Amino acid sequence: MSISKIVEELKADERNAEYTRRGIPPIFQLNKDAKILIIGQAPGRKVEESKIPFDDKSGEKLISWMGIDRKTFYSDKIAILPMDFYYPGKGKTGDLPPRKFIAEEYHHEILDELTDIEMTLLIGKYSMDYYLKGEMKRNLTETVRSYEEYLPKYFPIVHPSPLNFRWQAKNPWFMEEVVPVLAERVAKILGQNADS
Q: pTM of the full predicted structure?
């Protein structure tokens, strides 16, 4: 099924009717020629307004971790497929989790269209739980620390949200050891120099 057909299916899905009524399309970035796939959580309120994936502080940090610029991030070399394509709303302690049916019913169809992906970034617990079924470590921290075990297909990383500053402060190895490898692999796949 083509990506445009999948988008129409999503808009027509009654579980997304409220968003469609409000003129909000499914928010993702899909390019058949993409080499790197990013699977994150779900759009936040700011992204729902701009309708551009990762158009927030988390996105700025992720772009920096990947060692690329905004133009490359939003190019046809990168695909962005959240666990939910719509902002799920506010909960008691932050945003609500992604709705499960999106990944379960729609990801497979979309992934069938993305045939050139060389590496998938799994960002945060929801994508790791779903895509590393049975292969995750005891918790997210140990899974991210063991990232080499999942290469070359998957590269699990912590969510780049500013709210994760405590986790980053407690785990300095992530910026020191993991992020440079991520930037290096991204540069290699995209055919760029890591320093450029």
A: 0.94
